[in-house]
Amino acid sequence: MVNQVQRVEDTWRTCSKSDSSGASNSGCESSKESSRSSTPVLDTDRTDRLRDKMRRRTESGDHWFSLEFFPPRTASGAVNLISRFDRMGSGGPLFIDVTWHPAGDPGSDKETSSMMIASTAVNYCGLESILHLTCCNQTKEKITGYLSKAKRLGLKNIMALRGDPMGADWEEEEAGFNYATDLVKHIRCEFDDYFDICVAGYPTGHPEAESYDEDLRHLKEKVDAGADFIITQLFFRADTFLKFVRDCRAIGITCPILPGIFPIQGYQSLRQLVKLSKLEVPEEIMQVIEPIKDNDAAIRNYGIEQAVGMCRVLLESGEVPGLHFYTLNREVATMEVLRQLGLWIEDPRRTLPWAVSAHPKRKVEDVRPIFWASRPKSYIYRTQDWDDFPNGRWGNSSSPAFGELNDYYLFYLKSKSSKDALLKMWGEELTSEQSVYEVFTSYITAQPNVAGHKVMCLPWNDDPLAPETNLLKDELDKVNRRGVLTINSQPSINGKPSSDPIVGWGPPGGYVFQKAYLEFFTSSENVTALLKVLKKYEPRVNYHIVNVHGQNTTNAHDMQPNAVTWGIFPGREIVQPTVVDPVSFLYWKDEAFALWIEQWAKLYEDESPSRMIIKYIHDNYFLVNLVDNDFPLDNCLWQVIDDMFELLDNPPEEQPADKNQAMRSKELSVEL
Amino acid sequence: MVNQVQRVEDTWRTCSKSDSSGASNSGCESSKESSRSSTPVLDTDRTDRLRDKMRRRTESGDHWFSLEFFPPRTASGAVNLISRFDRMGSGGPLFIDVTWHPAGDPGSDKETSSMMIASTAVNYCGLESILHLTCCNQTKEKITGYLSKAKRLGLKNIMALRGDPMGADWEEEEAGFNYATDLVKHIRCEFDDYFDICVAGYPTGHPEAESYDEDLRHLKEKVDAGADFIITQLFFRADTFLKFVRDCRAIGITCPILPGIFPIQGYQSLRQLVKLSKLEVPEEIMQVIEPIKDNDAAIRNYGIEQAVGMCRVLLESGEVPGLHFYTLNREVATMEVLRQLGLWIEDPRRTLPWAVSAHPKRKVEDVRPIFWASRPKSYIYRTQDWDDFPNGRWGNSSSPAFGELNDYYLFYLKSKSSKDALLKMWGEELTSEQSVYEVFTSYITAQPNVAGHKVMCLPWNDDPLAPETNLLKDELDKVNRRGVLTINSQPSINGKPSSDPIVGWGPPGGYVFQKAYLEFFTSSENVTALLKVLKKYEPRVNYHIVNVHGQNTTNAHDMQPNAVTWGIFPGREIVQPTVVDPVSFLYWKDEAFALWIEQWAKLYEDESPSRMIIKYIHDNYFLVNLVDNDFPLDNCLWQVIDDMFELLDNPPEEQPADKNQAMRSKELSVEL
């Protein structure tokens, strides 16, 4: 059910506490005080820092790419940008960076601030991220405050910049931040080695520098002050960069230098950028562009071709371990360049079935409840205050302490679609429960609804059906038509290779398994029949059935989770990333029911029939989850639902012999 | 590789933290302070106490049995008794009890003391155990000391007895322990509800009591003082017991009353017992026994028949939830009675592939390294100081802190066989390494050795081959003949039902899995060839190869364990009870090599050729373990060994094209 993906290799590598331990060479000292610990990670344990990842990939000659974004102006722009993070993150960037936008209250909690966008990339999209920070005209206290906040939010990398002085009459301040070097020193002074620090390099010299050589010396100062690597300003010729690297090496700069690549995407944006950065566009490029300046497609195609050609020269030079792209928050050109270079990971391997958060506190996390499979950002949000995360097993979670729902309408949990678009998809006017069923069916089948609109999302699923769920499409279609409103499911899997393109995850050479899972809303009439049917499936099928008021029926253990996804890998312990946890289910229940009201009912006028229909479902339906424990056999959950329909269609006549059954069914109704 | 077994049901039940929690009925309070914990067990969490197990089995009408033993007189008697615990424990007693032997220093650390025998039953044999304790002529301090020690050793149940006064001139002491009631009160006063307390009942009245009614009143006092259940003195007629129960109930004794069953096993032992207990043997029994008093077999057969008949009456009365057997430390009669009653569990289900310790501190333990599979008591001994035990996963055990080997010759780690028997099995005189290989081969094949003796054990395996290992017999035979001296192995299993009679374990409805494992000693010449061969099997096969000096070669992670046995069960998280842990292997290595010297070499004279041969092997051979990670495929480890032999038999001629390989092989030799 999860679409997000990312590079497997680094995450699996960092699962091991220490690569350099000599423990295999005999002579283990025994120490009574330290027993084993399944969560051996300290806050200061930073074996997965960006500079180490760079070093490892440089050593193995494994070229990488990275992506630069700027913060959006509006909340809806933020929602779009975060979707873009997910899409572009799937191609496997080593990191992304977010520029500092001094005019946009960059360190605030606003959903459009640089700080919040970078935090979201780390925490919710699982992307290694660099936050830009400019120091010009700032007090030390202010800067320290920003850095403390960044650290608290899980950000681990800073791009230290001077920034553009405000006004033309800028002068050096005695004790202030006058150059990026001052900021680098300050970070190292106040935060020791906590952050990885990046600084900017100017292949043609900084526009304000006295000379190219003078500028190189400044760069050397920044590196000597503690910067870990350099990203350059954009340039248009490979030679420009390669000379710059040679000159840097000549004066003793040894850290990685990443070329900033700018695929030309349009005439206006090019003009604006060169103006801002005071760069000159080479004559040979202008000669191509000028004649086609009104043809966006032609310019973009040229830009792609030009960037690909330049990148090839750079990569073949042996001087370039990775490429940094100025995306201008657009996808197409950068992705195409990366595809042509073979750097875009078309079929990325997943570390776990769900996207791993990049917050260092969550580094060991490898188990989650299945319920939030389609709402991983909500899960991360509601568990952000946890001090430790399930690792290896979920355990007996007597009190998982999920965050309250009152903030759940935060921007990154909102739908990407506008109210108008939602109304088109989910119905301008609902006339019956049946019309709700049809919305679900349209979503499942990807067929237009009665008004001719495709249903691209549901309150519980912000994206179209995942490829894995698509395998179940026919069955899902059939049951949704009859009011079994499915919101989450997975098929059973009995040992597919971990490299399987649809259901695979984890390191190579392993096998993945799943128990079949189905979660849906349905009427209390259906539930009464379902409970009768489920007796036939004991103990094969575990169920939890709950309504909005918390009336709860289950045949599973009260506290013990059921592992429904697991993997077996060479040389490792078992990994079981997804569980059905009975306690978490009751927290999820609140969220799942609230979505009916918050996302759907509120599209309609108060007291309107449409709103009343959704309200009725919210108040009266049950949320059901079913697990088929017998994963080596054919999934029996569809048969369970079929049997339920069969019982509803052909209720047994009440005969003396059936008296007991009638009694039981009465008890069940009471129980519910 | 594990022969020991025990009742699955209770152990699995107690894995759940709380059966009575109402968490499934909505309204979970969220509490920020408590996150999940994978080891939720406190020392005071005693949901698995004996009285609760009795109550549950009484409620479900599931009759049980229990077994009484007395402490042995000699150390070799202790070794034999502990083997008996393992054998009789496999039939599924609810508990065993160990009598208090005042003349035998019962509270000491001697291997024959009541305290140590009961502790061994709990800790090493995994048996729920009751320690008897008599209070007559003891100070309160002494008694409190015994109880504290018992608690510290993991004992949880006490049979509180007065004991026989020393000398005929016994008088009540003012502030002393005069009756068992005083002891019960003292236990409850000093240890609150920690211990489950059992007291003795006398179906025909205590011999010293003024009257039967007076004795019943004393019993009522003992129960009112805090006893949890009653075990009666032996008796010969069912009616005697059933009347006694009626009389107890009539005066308000409501706790369980377990009949003490004594299968008559011989004329002398019967006479002695009735004399000690001042009982009268009914005329109808004496009439049968007197004529056959010199025919032990006939008397035993009669005893079995008589006991079975009486037990049937008791069980059918509905008054008897379980039967308590006075075994006199013998097996045959009691086991036969239990078999005829259908109470002996012929094919007990295993909770885990290894026998679970009954020490409350180890309650959550569910992962162990595979290395000690045939020496579980040694593993328990060497980890007895751990504060917590692996639960769910082994984790990154940077320092597992195993106990030192210097105490390893403790009696419960000794071989059950005498030096003479060992010499017969392992060779009065060894002439070459080959003669050692033949000992291994005889053990594997269960064929007599050259001297005509069966090899029933090896220093690393105190019992004949386990049924599971028997599946591999032909392959094991073949490789041992050629000096691949196997000491541990398991076949691969790809999802057999948990009810499988040979490889199954855990609750019903599950599936168990294994990766193939092979562990052996072999010469450095073989290892050099093996390492070359193993390159072909990367990354499918993980290996660790180490010699006595700790020279260690591996292709596995330094710290991460490899799960080699796991199970998937309905409604549960994954269970992975056995791992290959690289750090633990180096501790096991010390033990595995030491066994060559301590158990085998020392059988021979100093400087004798036999001892020198074993010493040579100890000093020069390597200990190798191999895991085939690809559990769904056919086990490739035999092919690995075959390839090694093939390479040794037909070494490639050194040709120019092979230069690299020759170089590599040279490096490998150096590496080793």
From TrEMBL, chains A, B:
Gene Ontology molecular-function annotations: FAD binding; methylenetetrahydrofolate reductase (NADPH) activity
GO cellular component: cytosol
Keyword Iron among record annotations: no
Chain positions covered by the region annotation Disordered: 1-52, 652-672
Catalysed transformations (reactions): (6S)-5-methyl-5,6,7,8-tetrahydrofolate + NADP(+) = (6R)-5,10-methylene-5,6,7,8-tetrahydrofolate + NADPH + H(+)
Biased composition (Low complexity): 15-29
Domain MTHFR SAM-binding regulatory: 349-649
InterPro entries cross-referenced by the UniProt entry: FAD-linked_oxidoreductase-like (IPR029041), Fadh2_euk (IPR004621), Mehydrof_redctse-like (IPR003171), MTHFR_C (IPR053806)
SUPFAM superfamilies linked: FAD-linked oxidoreductase (SSF51730)
Presence of the UniProt keyword Flavoprotein in the record: yes
Gene3D superfamilies: 3.20.20.220
Entry's EC annotation: 1.5.1.53
Assembly notes: Homodimer.
The name this protein goes by in its record: Methylenetetrahydrofolate reductase (NADPH)
